[in-house]
TrEMBL record:
Protein name: Peptidase S8/S53 domain-containing protein
Active-site residues from the entry: D149 (charge relay system), H222 (charge relay system), S546 (charge relay system)
Organism: Corchorus olitorius
Domain (Subtilisin-like protease fibronectin type-III) ranges: 661-761
PROSITE patterns per the UniProt record, alphabetical: SUBTILASE (PS51892), SUBTILASE_SER (PS00138)
Single biological process term from Gene Ontology: proteolysis
Amino acid sequence: MIKIFDAMLLLVAFIAILSTALADRQTYIVRMDKAKITNTFMIDSKPWHEAVFDSIADFSSQQEQELEAAAPPELVYSYETGFFGFAAKLSAKQLESLKKVDGFMTAIPDQMLSLHTTHTPQFLGLEGSKGLWHSSNLQTSDVIIGVIDSGIWPEHVSFKDHGMPPIPSRWKGSCEKGSKFSTSNCNKKLIGARAFYKGNLASGGKINQTEENLSARDDAGHGTHTASTAAGNLVPNASLFGLANGTAAGISYTARIAMYKACWVNGCSAADVLAAILAAVEDGVDVLSLSLGFKAQLYYRDHSAIAAFFAFTSGVFVTFSAGNSGPGESTAANTAPWILTVAASTSDRSFPAIVKLGNGKIFQGTSLYTGEATKQLPVVYGKTAGGEGAQYCMVDSLNPKLVKGKIVMCEQGFINFAAKGEQVKLAGGVGMIGLKFGDEDVNAHAHILPAATLGASASEAVEKYFNSTKLPTASIAFKGTKYGNRAPMVAAFSSRGPNLVGLDVIKPDVTAPGVNILAALPPVISPSLLKSDKRRAAFGIMSGTSMSCPHVAGIAALLKSKHKNWSPAAIKSALMTTAYTIDNRGKPIADLSARGSEATPFAMGSGHVDPVKASDPGLIYDITTEDYLHYLCSLKYSAAQMALFSEGFTCPKKVTMQPGDLNYPSFAVNFKGNARNTTFTYERIVTNVGIPRSTYRVSVEEPKGVSIIVKPNVLRFKKLGEKLSYKVSFVGLKKGKSGSSSFGSLVWVSKKYRVRSPIAVTWR
Ligand SMILES: *[C@@H]1O[C@H](CO)[C@@H](O)[C@H](O)[C@H]1NC(C)=O
Ligand SMILES: *[C@@H]1O[C@H](CO)[C@@H](O)[C@H](O)[C@H]1NC(C)=O
Ligand SMILES: *[C@@H]1O[C@H](CO)[C@@H](O)[C@H](O)[C@H]1NC(C)=O
Ligand SMILES: *[C@@H]1O[C@H](CO)[C@@H](O)[C@H](O)[C@H]1NC(C)=O
Ligand SMILES: *[C@@H]1O[C@H](CO)[C@@H](O)[C@H](O)[C@H]1NC(C)=O
Ligand SMILES: *[C@@H]1O[C@H](CO)[C@@H](O)[C@H](O)[C@H]1NC(C)=O
């Protein structure tokens, strides 16, 4: 304290230095060695992290300028279970001293992650009271789904608890009081709600309480939507202004929900997400759903991955969204193998809008607008609509004199299509046509004026018409909801593999519905998400891998209630090996990133999830915690890196496996440029969970340029639970262009089952 006072006197003179010293302070997530720390620091009554801080504060003040003492290390979180360490604001000097403390392991700067912004149960084959939705599966189950997101609107009809049995006694979570959130907001459906924001505040995030409630209440809409997708109640007659009408249903609609709010207006701090995951595991969730992320990172630097590993070892199934940064290569985030990474694709439902041009040509676009059609009106675009940025209908770019009474065309970019429509309306325009030149995606917006968006081929045709016509005109008409479209198709926005940080594992793992998903909306936001839009609806339609991820969380909950003894890896294997790759027209699943192209495993992983098949997969590829630790050893992790994943595990001196031997339900094979005569041989072990006495024969579709040998090629099981192994050799036949890939599959076929693994071969 005296030191601080002394420092005060110097403060005026050194104000400039101080501000740089303070700016220098950053939040770090610090991992410590529990055994060493408890030996060294737990002698007196102080909490251990305070003792550590005292020691590094002393260090700095002895060695450095007095000024340093003015800003002692500031604790943000202390992590005790699963991850022993803390998050703290430290100066560079303090970090240096901390590194000298016996027991220091790693310090990684905090990061900001972002959110990856009901008809789908039927599309998934969940119906009436059959199959997985049969009462015997649902009522006896008591699965708890934890959702880490932007909070929840607890009063929403999707979270009512009528008829639900008491909360399982194993549940240790809580319903935290906060701004506009009280303990009575939880019930037997929403059994827990907590808010994590200390990391956000420490990293300079300002949670403006006139814009968001400092509690688990959802002021953004994202968390309410994802939570209701995973486990919202059955709500009859749900729709968005009559669109997508029907019974809204969470995929696992009898499961319990626990919300962990870690995402705020400015993003989700990794320190908060880490704290939320650890808390959720402690509280007793069975499944965790996270629709957020940053980008693919080395697993030992990725706190979401490290925390997810702890969840895995605790028996919790964890699924993350892959991200919305597609269709570029290697854009997938959350790629650790113990995580199920979800891509996004369409369902057979669409919201067509018809754009008719002055030359009589008709194009189908998409829209959630429900009003009357426009008349045939003059069309303006770019220079004929306004000044700089008018082509994109950017804020204040449109000229009311040019736009009034007309239809404005707006190209994709900078702001979303609903916000472009808002600009058109503000400038006096009557309608908007959104043009996209990169893809054929069909995600729809709840426009505030008559508007539709077109895919790339229609956009080009419409632009060509505009370019070649003196007085171009158009009209837009709205066709409501249509079913039976070709589906699924992988969305262009869905992030892609290959997996940059783990070449031996295909990512994403599967795809699920993530385009135009109807789910719960809080009453404080509009369906267009525009502030100026005063319309309200209990259900809204959103798109993103954020929406596909909770579908898979819901399915995992159904599988968990049916197969109580299945490990997270077994559930994952079942979801992957039963995923389908042929669409409802009998064709390979298409990729909307380019017209007519087929989705590869780098877009959809093993394929589209099939909950009914996944509940009875025949064989599973199981993976234990120990297996994963050996896998990390095979990646040549150092002792310090290994210690992040497990206390007290040391890699064997002798190499026990290649990374490709991980018992993963898919195969990523990497050849050097000239692969002629190179052979990789990997081992797999399958466990019989189907029919006790059964015979499986292998069926292989070889990727171009590769020959495949499977030994043995017949597996004969005599009982349930029996494990049999096989070896698969990939023989390179050619010299491949660097970065090129080819694809195939390996399927174990019995009378009843097909257990499929995709194969992705890449030449590097
Ligand atoms: C908080 O938000 C309100 C409303 O958007 C705004 O007027 C105010 O300036 C903000 N306060 C801070 C400190 O950013
Ligand atoms: C906080 O929650 C209340 C509901 O209790 C809501 O009316 C209000 O708009 C929320 N505040 C903000 C800033 O979102
Ligand atoms: C269904 O909802 C619509 C509009 O939201 C309403 O007009 C209608 O009466 C409702 N039908 C039933 C059966 O509740
Ligand atoms: C949706 O509404 C339309 C028109 O009101 C009706 O014909 C249709 O049956 C409804 N669909 C569902 C799934 O309820
Ligand atoms: C339309 O004209 C613009 C500007 O001259 C040009 O950039 C664009 O490529 C043209 N589009 C088509 C489809 O011809
Ligand atoms: C591949 O192996 C075969 C048989 O061992 C040999 O004849 C051939 O020359 C080899 N090719 C290359 C490119 O090494």
